[in-house]
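Fig. S4 source data, part A: sequence.
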Amino acid sequence: MRPARLRAVAPVAVALAVAVLPAPEGLSRNAWWFFALFAGTVTALVLEPVPAAAAGLCSVSLAAALRLVDPSPAASARWGLSGFGNATVWLIFSAFVLALGYERSGLGRRLALLLVRAIGRRPFGLGYAVALSDFVLAPLTPSNTARSAGTLFPVIRQIPEQAAPGSPEDQRRLGGYLAWTAFAVTCITSSMFLTALAPNLLAVEVVRTTTGVRLEWTSWLLGFWPVGLALAAVTPLAGYAFFRPAQGTSEAGAAVWAATQLREMGGITRRETKVALLALLALTGWVAGRELLDATTVALLVVGLMVLTGAVRWDEVLGHAAAWNVLVWFATLVALADGLARVGFVSWIAKSATVPLAGLSPTAAALLLLTLFFASHYLFASVTAHVAALLPVALATAAALPGIDAARFAALLCYSLGLMGVISPYATGPAPAYYASGFLSRGQFWGLGFAFGSVFLLALLALAAITL
């Protein structure tokens, strides 16, 4: 069977294979059938025979039509549409529109070039210029693919030739250093800010519906900031120690090239100024205004102001396929995750999963769950699919174990989502771009992924041991 056909058949086969099995003791037939549909959906999210949003929409529609969650046709329809009325889903959509302003105005590229010009006269400085660029863009760019692969990688790709002309080996080493630094740092910043990775926002909603815990923008930042800042600070240094790009006066060519690119861009435009001011307004609202305005209200207000001021045109919003796609995708996933809880599957599996952990101390059990949650990402090609499949189970299992602080453990699971993207060439959106860049060999990518992933996990476990 051809790979494309196999990908198309596999989700249906998984769903049917689970559905024909007898429902385990303690689960209703509808609950088991809903889980079968959910298992097929996760398989589709991993293999992607169709776009993820289409898979989610089909699954929610089928579950509503079969009335697996509620026997009433009207109530079943309301459940199927519930994700589209979810505030977090609209926060994700709004954040994508905010990131569109960075892209269309050229502000993101300008910031990267300014940092390369300022501190990019040596390889070490270039590494930190890349890291700082991602750090600045992360709070308002919920797609690390757009942020790193779309905005920063085109700049990074041109630096080695400018910094080491005529020396392919020096170019390869410098390119490898910058590519890996950019990739590893974007995984860190994806965990540092709630709005730096779309699955973070989905996870927040899953946490709320599963445990009742609400994770806010500021509490997320403060909770992970010490670990995230330390990892972001040492990652360029660790990458430099591995690649050891050649030192020499030619590296100043990167700064000269950046200065040339900036001259070609001209002075900062009114559109860039508007985007910068509105970005600061959004951040201020999320950090300081949470007692007055919900984060989604702030985001929607800023989107409206972007359109009214011309920072982003309405036709650009309408044509922003990624934002509308993620709206449908995450709205259906939120409904499916809620359905798992409504039919009783989450509570049932939590009771089953707590048996092997019953003899462990609360801290040991939490650390083991966190490690398994992180390491299991080797099985996923999407952080979103990982969240949908395993986060409700991990949360419910921890909640069923006495002595584990549900709110803190939920935050730790969410902090892991960006970090786990570093482990493989398929673990997160930007990974394929850097893997295929030509700067990193297959062995280097897998080896560095394991090494950095291990360090990231250890840092997270240390934070867990302190806070739990």
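Fig. S4 source data, part B ends here. The two ends are 49 Å apart (CA to CA).
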